[in-house]
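Re: beginner question about structure tokens

> Can someone show what the tokenized structure looks like for a real chain? I only ever see the sequence side.

Sure, here's an example I had lying around. Input first:
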Amino acid sequence: MDPKSDEPDHPWDYYRRDYEKLVVAAMMINCTNFELLPWPERVFGDPTIPKDYVYELVNVFNTFASISPLNYSFPVVGIPISDSYLWQSNSQVIYLLALPLLRSGIRVELFPIERVEDEKFLKKFSVIILNYESWHPSSNKQQEGIIKWLRNGGKIIFFGSVNNYSRDYFVTLLKLLEIKNPRISYSSSAISKNSTFSFLGDKISLVEFLSINGSNFSSIYCDNVGNSVVFFKKFYNGSFIFLGIPLTYFSSTRDSFLLNAIYNSLKIVEFKLDQKSYLIIKRGFVIALYSFYKTELSGKYLNLFSPGLEEVTNPTFSSDQYALLLFLNSSVKVSFAKFQVHEQQYILLALLLIVVIVILLVIYFLFKARKLYVTNSERWMKHFTFH
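And the corresponding structure tokens:
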């Protein structure tokens, strides 16, 4: 991370805001190793850098030195992707799943599909959302890893349609779910078959829904020939929910429709995600926060982006504000320590004081040496006089 970018024509306030946002983002993705200054001379060697920014950087560097790892004690939604999205059409629709959740204060992580083979890595996810419109797995072994996680108590929501690249992978996924004789078709409308979970209304219409013909699952919405557009399946200890609504449909509607579909899908499996007006991550006593709407925290904190380490009580944040805070817990005896020289004259006074002390020490030792010389001289004179 660089406190000053390669572009030299911006003011320091611009560099400062960008760096602070980068620090907050690094805190949220569990960074534990930091490159403080790629080019130190470009920052501290620049005579135009504001002193306040220098003090702030020192505060942040001290924070990096003692930061705790992220404790995943909160629900995390995982969205897997693969490098196939780089060359498929509609590659950006993956963000239609992630961004509305983030703006609702829900922790979301996009991760490479290859990580599904790491069971320890998958443990942090409460829910995984799949979408094969913009990417597809590179092997069925990756799908087997997802199904294994699901079988052990995971929850999966499959959103969207499929394309020519991902169609066969999706059929294999249905077979891994032990759905008998799955066949894919497309429908233009669907009606509710379960009044308890009619979260999309009594009837939904679209140019093209993805619908499934098969058995061994519970239909929620079906087309006019009985194929399922939305269904639920209990799979051992896990739960799988399918919504064959293409993400391009959500791109033409408000985020609230997508969130409504996700939240109500999770209600089916008795899982709740709490919406918040902010994203917040706690790493020990350090708190990184990004506020989407007006937000208020309770308690006392040190503002680590404040050069003077300002203490704030019950801080309030408006829309699109961020913060790096240190929680002042009563059990912490020393929260933060710093040394700061405010003006150059204090340095000169300190140097002058050192010089005065040295001179006084020299005078003292010279006086002691002279006194010792006189005493020894008198002693020798008495000795020669006696003889």
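Each token stands for a local structural state, so reading them left to right follows the chain. Confidence is low (pLDDT under 50) at residues 339-343.
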